[in-house]
Specification:
It is found in: Cell projection, Stereocilium; Cytoplasm, Cytoskeleton. One of its GO terms (cellular component) is cytoplasm. It contains no helices and 46 strands. It is mostly beta strands. It folds into four domains: 13-134, Trefoil (Acidic Fibroblast Growth Factor, subunit A) (Trefoil), CATH 2.80.10; 139-255, Trefoil (Acidic Fibroblast Growth Factor, subunit A) (Trefoil); 259-367, Trefoil (Acidic Fibroblast Growth Factor, subunit A) (Trefoil), CATH 2.80.10; 372-477, Trefoil (Acidic Fibroblast Growth Factor, subunit A). The strands form 17 sheets. It has a six-stranded antiparallel beta sheet, with no helix packed on it.
Length: 481
Amino acid sequence: MSTNGINKALKLQFGLINYENRYLTAEAFGFKVNASATSMKKKQIWTLEQDEQDGQVVFLRSHLGRYLASDKDGKIICGAEMRDPECRFLIVPQADGRWALQSEPFQRYFGGSADYLSCFAQIIGEQELWAVHLALHPQASLLSVARKRYAHLSASDGEISVDSNIPWGVDSLVTLVYLDGKYSLKTCDSRFLSNDGKLVKENTNATSFTLELKSGKLAFKDCDGKYLAPVGPTGTLRSGRCSKPGKDELFDLEESHPQVVFQAANKRFVSVKQGVSISTFQMEIDKESKKSMFRTNGGSYWTLVTHGEIQSTATEVEVNTMFDIEWRGQRVALKASNGKYVCTKKNGQLSAVSDTVADDELLLMKLINRPMLILRGENGFVCHHKNSNTLDANRSVYDIFTLIFNDGAYNIKSVNGKFWYVSSSGLVCSDGEKSENFFLEFLEHGRVAIKGSNDKYLRGDQGGTLMCDGKSVDASSLWEY
């Protein structure tokens, strides 16, 4: 089993912002497009697809699953269900990081404002330039294409090193911070990567990079026009000498799965070998069955073996490696594929032999690779409301919150150092002096539900406000994290 590229590279989704600071929007009615929106919601999100034969050619797919196309007269429509010849575009990157989009069959450039969009310009002017605002969740693992190694914080050396075989632990989490069209790379200890490879507390010109795309991979261009690359034996991430991105300067963003540790009722931590230090396990949720697998950093999975024992010996995902998680407030219970609950035996061995849940079947599960929490729901990111103590759940920008573990529950700390709490009317407020418990339930691949102390779920309401009044889990109460 290859350890590199262990998770799928994230599909590149983004908003395109024109010269008037408006987002390209795909309307459901008549498959029309305009550039009138001031923020990025569902209608403003585009997915980039590449032509398998010609890596330079791209297709832009709307939230409706239709493709952007231009005819010979420059008329723009977004109704094609298939990738027709008229849907073929070329990206022409500019020095400031913006894109010009050129129709491949007709060689004309796409631009305009409001309802007046066309693809008829023969040269690139200000109206034909689009800024790219990534729409994917900004916390990910960063994989070097050339080295086939992952970036991680090397705290002792004060740098980001690109020398991990697998993205393991909180050190491998990179947060992309978007500001004024540029991106910064933030480490798990809240420092920013500077172009000289040093980690600094403040976000400055030297920590701001323009994002470029080349053959579906990302390149980060600094304020001097040079690109980030891994340098030297440990792969120190810093700007190199190149002013054109080659293979060394290309990266993939990969989804970062939750990684957890378990503690049994006997206060011992679950580990791969007895007496070995605590083992961290990666929780991978099957998209179809919604069951969970637990992977070790050696690449093997927990599995049910004879006599109900649980071992970490499976190399492939199969029925016996799948577990149902029951969320019981501050503890979880795991049910194996034999329908029995996992319990801790007197000798410390985990076995799936119980029909009911008592103390021995309850485990404390702690999420270890999300010290910073960024939530994205079906309508956008969670962000402080400008003029009150409430939170919005429909923004195209995000705030970074701090997640603090508290005996199986979590406290959520705001940017201002105050805590989240739920008001008597079910509003989530962000100015609490005292912390309040919330419970994370990992229910779907890449999605978490969050339950308040009132036993209700967090959801975004119609007006875009974050509420804690959901009686059950639906699309409005599942969050990318």
